[in-house]
Every structure is written in C-alpha cells, then in structure tokens.
Design brief:
With about 210 residues, this protein is an alpha/beta fold. The chain is built from 8 helices and 8 strands; from the N terminus they run H-H-H-E-H-E-H-E-E-E-H-H-H-E-E-E. The strands form 3 sheets. Strands 1-5-2 form a 3-stranded parallel sheet, sandwiched between helices. Helix 2 (about 20-30) packs across helix 3 (about 45-55) and helix 3 crosses helix 4. The longest helix is centred in the middle third of the chain and has 15 residues, at about 115-125. It is elongated, with a radius of gyration of 21 Å. The chain starts with 12 loop residues before the first helix and ends with a strand.
C-alpha cells in the first residue's frame, strides 16, 4: 500500500485511529463501495481519516448538490493539510479534484467551455494515458462530484483519445495540420483569440 499523500490535521488523529474508520477501511479493501450512515456534520472528517490509511486508488465522493461538492473539496483539502510544525517534513495536501456538472437546463446547449475542459482534464488523468505516456501519478486521491455530474454523458477512453491532442514545449508541429485539427474539434477561428475555444493564425504563429 502506498504511503499517504496527505497527513491529517493533528486534532483528527483520534478519529483516524478509531474502530469505525478501521471497519470502513476493511470494507473498502474488500469491495468497491461502502455506505456509511449515521454520521452527523461533515462527512469530510471521515473521508480525511480514511485517505490517511487507504491509498493507491481514486475514491469517488458523491454529493446531492453542486454547492455541497464545492464545500466537500475545500473541507477534505483542509483536513488533510499537513501534520503540524513538529512533523519534521513538509506538509503535503491530498489531491482532491472536482468533477463538475454542466449547469444547464434540459434542452439548453450553452455548455461552459471551462467546465468541459475541467471534466476532460480529469477524465484524461483517470484513463492513465496522456499522449501515449503512462500518467498514473496524475490520478487524484479523491474525486468529488455532484450527482448531476455523473448523470451527464462522459466520453469513453477511445473517444477521449480522439478529443485530446497533447502539445509539449519544444515539440515541432505541422501548422496546417494543427489548424485543421482545431477546426475539426470545435475550436472557432477568429482574427484574435478572445475566449476559451478560440484560435487565431498569424503567419507561422497559432494562438489558442
């Protein structure tokens, strides 16, 4: 089992050492999901205690509403932020990522480019490949998602590979081929880039 990436705040250590958390961890090691009922207050307290003991795979946290998802991300990051001044090493926060929902009503098509990019980035990291190279280290410890987000369609791995084009510093690209790829994948060509999803061509320079 990999060592924990985030230490608990010191006041949470008794919770991490409790029989309740030990029982949850035992069940998670045997199955893919566990229902924890009866807690009062922030479930992020229990999540933070679990992540200190159980690492090596992403854990999905579902919330009922969009605002609750934002709060859960902040709380888990806070509760796993460092181990105090006397820990002898630099505190490192657990990697907690939000999988956002498209905030649109049925029948609407004005989907946010920013939310689309955030969803695609997380899905790319979870797929384990980015540009043909294994990126397992990029997988988060926690994925927090409102239930609306997982009910909305997401691309599979094969489609995801077609939608993502890795571009690295120092890489040589064919300008015309890049321009065609951008146009075929939903980017809008303008005289000057104004917003996410725009691109412009100035001689041999392509602004995205």
């Amino acid at each position: 089992m990999a060592p924990p990436k985030g230490d608990l705040q010191p006041f949470l250590q008794p919770l991490a050492d409790s029989r309740v958390v030990a029982d949850l961890i035992g069940r998670l090691e045997e199955r893919r999901h566990v229902a924890a009922t009866g807690q009062w207050g922030s479930c992020a307290l229990v999540l933070a205690a679990v992540v200190q003991r159980l690492m090596g795979r992403p854990m999905l946290v579902l919330t009922a509403h969009l605002d609750e998802a934002d709060d859960a991300v902040d709380q888990v990051m806070f509760f796993t932020r460092g181990g105090g001044a006397d820990s002898g090493r630099r505190p490192e926060t657990a990697d907690v990522r939000l999988y956002p929902a498209f905030e649109v009503l049925p029948g609407e098509s004005n989907i946010s480019h920013e939310l689309s990019a955030q969803r695609l980035e997380l899905l790319t990291d979870l797929s384990g490949t980015r540009g043909g190279e294994k990126q397992g280290a990029g997988r988060p410890d926690f994925i927090v998602a409102p239930v609306q987000a997982v009910m909305q369609p997401s691309p599979g791995e094969e489609l995801l590979a077609e939608l993502v084009k890795p571009v690295r510093v120092g890489q040589t690209l064919d300008r015309d081929a890049l321009v065609r790829w951008l146009a075929e994948h939903g980017y809008t060509r303008l005289d000057a880039v104004e917003d996410a999803g725009d691109f412009a061509v100035r001689g041999e320079i392509v602004d995205v």
